[in-house]
Design a protein that fits this description.
7-stranded mixed β-sheet
Length: 647
């Protein structure tokens, strides 16, 4: 007897199971398998891990299914399987049924598979699902084992797995991404708890900057990956008449992802899932400061991604260097400029392509006609969110001299009202710093400012406490490290400016070029300034928002790195974009092939002149000389080897 489900609940499970898996010569029916694996015991082991709301929902739903006619269940599951064909606005209930009902049945049915069989994709090829039941202790044992393995074995396994992933259809990969999104959505509070335990950020920061954008990214993949990764027909010029052109997107192979500590969940799942949907195997090395051991593996495998398809390797920079030496097919790195340079140098020895998402010193420009209240709110959040530990946070604030006094008065008053500390209910604004190293950097900048006598508007700070109060800084700042170097903390230096050209010049002097924001009622001015700023991303009358649209590319210029990911550009960056030109199996000899003759040169020259000429007459001349050239090519080929072409 199940401790979670009554007799009717178990009857509902079996009835639904027989609809989904009626059985055939190769596979037994669900009911037979349920009895063989002692299903009531197995289902209790599964439901032990379910959150209360989901468990309560199953307790209500399954007895109803037990009383539902089988024909209606078949119709329901057909709709569940085909949910991607219905309008997106109506998809969500069917997605939930897909992951909740079909996931329950298929996980039960295949609960006795060993990991090797599952990793070969046998389950996925049969029913587009992979479900293995593990406990948290087993996750930890698995990740420790992988981390201690020689990197050569890790890469050997990755290259073998890349073959299996490539053989999955794009639809299968997208379905797995959908599974993953549902799992993250249902486990969001559990994931946030894990994030807070290691980062010390505020709870709402974790929800808004780690959970929500991951879900948004995964939804983008579900909706757009097929459109952007399917074979593309390409125009073929008139001079190549009779031929067809296309572009295909092949997997690159093995992608090495090295992520930072400031957004450990978002910066893990975004590149991992992009790499996976493009058909690659991934080796993921999280920061040693926020490894969140076992979390990524747990949710990936629950969604159907084998631990061999995405291997998580823990360790410091030395481990990362060892992984690079093994020669991945691409390196995707997010982190500091110094580490980015070292990775690029090491990768150059084997010509490994790299994508570097590095630091920033992002400016915010506020013109005199901006809405002051909104701009102050944007500046405060843009500078302090995630305790300022974001590569796109506002680090230099330029305010027009006409509104500077009013702006600063409001900014200082509002910053003093922010609450500090990590929390459990989402009520705190600014959490603690994540690493002692970053606290030391802020202490150095803080001491320098104190020595120079600049104004620091802030509550008291002892220079040691990782809970740092927000600091609004003004004065002669241009020569100080707080103005020139990336701070990565809750500090906001502010200076005034007088005209548009001046502020553009000041911003473009920075060695960084990741992101910026421009604030004004004049949209034409905003767009003009945005175009003139040397940066990869610009938000207008908002802050840090370009990365909020997963249809847009993201990346920097100058010392902020290079490459673009997210949007269709992200999918392309994890793919080998292959050009294919198709010709018929005819007897035609191309005009530019051997042998070369004086007549071919003359005709080719005339054809070229008219092909790139103007007007209808040129077009007809192009066609005339082109046809003559084809004839000459065929005739000269037949003579080749028969007569001396110099005679």
């Amino acid at each position: 007897m199940s401790k979670h489900l009554g007799v009717k609940g178990i009857r509902g499970v079996i009835k639904l199971g027989n609809v989904i898996i009626p059985g055939d010569n190769e596979f037994p029916s669900f009911e037979i398998q349920f009895q063989r694996i002692q299903g009531e015991i197995t289902i209790d082991r599964m439901l032990d891990y379910l959150v209360k709301n989901d468990l309560d929902g199953l307790k209500i739903l399954l007895p109803i299914l037990a009383c539902t006619p089988t024909v209606f269940l078949r119709i329901l599951m057909k709709m569940v399987d085909e949910y991607q064909k219905i309008p997106i606005i109506f998809q969500e209930p069917f997605r939930l049924l897909y992951i909740g009902l079909k996931g329950l049945i298929l996980t039960l049915y295949y609960s006795d598979l060993d990991s090797k069989e599952a990793s070969r994709g046998e389950v996925l090829k049969k029913i587009e699902w992979n479900a293995q039941m593990e406990n948290h202790q087993e996750w930890a044992m698995e990740e420790d084992k992988i981390s201690k393995e020689p990197v050569g074995l890790i890469f050997k396994r990755a290259r073998e797995s890349a073959i299996h992933i490539k053989n999955l259809s794009l639809k299968e990969r997208i379905n797995i991404v959908n599974n993953l999104r549902q799992i993250i959505l249902h486990k969001k509070e559990y994931i946030i708890d894990r994030i807070l335990a290691e980062t010390k950020k505020s709870r709402l920061d974790a929800l808004a900057s780690e959970i929500y954008p991951v879900l948004d990214h995964l939804q983008f993949i579900e909706q757009k990956a097929y459109q952007f990764l399917k074979d593309q027909k390409i125009s073929t010029p008139l001079a190549l008449m009779g031929k067809k052109s296309q572009v295909v997107y092949d997997p690159m192979g093995v992608i090495l992802v090295i992520s930072p500590w400031n957004y450990p969940f978002y910066q893990a799942l975004t590149p991992i899932t992009t790499s996976f949907v493009c058909g690659n195997a991934t080796i993921f090395k999280p920061s040693e400061y926020t490894p969140m051991k076992g979390l990524v593996e747990e949710i990936l495998q629950e969604a159907g991604i084998s631990l061999e398809w995405v291997q998580v390797v823990y360790g410091d920079g030395k481990k990362g260097a060892q992984l690079i030496l093994e020669g991945p097919d691409k390196i995707f790195f997010t982190g500091s400029v110094g580490t980015g340079k070292a990775i690029m140098k090491a990768a150059s020895e084997k010509l490994i392509p790299v994508e570097l998402e590095l630091g920033g010193k992002d400016p915010m420009i506020v013109f005199s006609d901006a809405n002051i209240d909104r701009a102050v709110a944007g500046a405060l959040w843009g500078a302090m969110t995630n305790t300022g530990q974001s590569c796109t946070s506002v680090e230099n604030l330029y305010v027009h001299e006409k509104i500077y006094p009013e702006f600063m008065k409001l900014l200082k008053r509002k910053s003093a009202g922010l609450t500090l500390g990590s929390d459990k209910d989402g009520s705190c604004d600014i959490g603690a710093m994540t690493t002692p190293l970053q606290v030391a950097i802020i202490k150095r900048q803080y001491d320098e400012m104190k020595a120079k006598g600049v104004a620091i508007h802030s509550a008291q700070w002892d220079g040691k406490n990782p809970v740092i109060p927000p600091m609004i800084i003004e004065g002669e700042l241009e020569d100080l490290s707080v103005w020139k170097e990336e701070t990565f903390g809750p500090l906001l230096p502010v200076i005034k400016f007088s005209d548009e050209g001046e502020v553009i010049h000041l911003c473009n002097q920075s060695q960084y070029g990741l992101s910026a924001s421009v604030w004004s009622a004049d949209k034409n001015r905003c767009l003009r300034v945005a175009r003139l700023l040397k940066t990869g991303n610009v938000s207008i009358n908002n802050v840090m928002l370009t990365e909020g649209n997963h249809h847009l590319p993201f990346g920097g210029t100058k010392m902020s790195g290079f490459g673009r990911y997210k949007g269709r550009w992200g999918l392309e960056s994890f793919s080998n974009i292959k050009s294919i030109l198709i010709d018929g199996n005819s007897s035609k000899i191309e005009a530019n092939w051997y042998p070369y003759t004086k007549q071919k040169y003359f005709l080719f020259s005339k054809m070229t002149e008219n092909y790139f000429g103007k007007g209808l007459l040129s077009f007809f001349k192009f066609a005339f000389y082109g046809l003559r050239l084809e004839g000459e090519a065929s005739k000269s080929w037949k003579k080749l080897g028969v007569t001396n072409k110099h005679e």
